Structure prediction request, 131 residues.
Amino acid sequence: MNEIKAIEAAQMKKDVDQFKVGDTVKVHFKIVEGKTERVQIYEGLVIAFKNSKVGKTFTVRKISYGVGVERVFPIHSPRVVKVEVVRQGKVRRAKLYYIREKIGKGAKIKELIVKKGAKGVHVPATAAEQE
Prediction:
């Protein structure tokens, strides 16, 4: 069992990008075409995380020419170059499978608004609070 854990630890990435379900992300991943490699960007909404450790995956959904397309990416894959967060979403579910039935504005996720400033420090929102 220790050998298996050692192999898994060697295959895991040290610096995993921080994102969560509900975020809109750009996934940069390598495509191999014959002898050439190129990086392709897949932008969409993260609707689910599955598994843990080396087998951890996330599902990204986008609308392409009016058709919903989902793709599953392994987090620790060497083909996934980076995951860039475009906007953070405000959701209260771990799996957003209900988005599959929604179309148009109904499929939107509210944006999580984070105030600029240090953690734990009260940032006044209006001039009245400053006085």
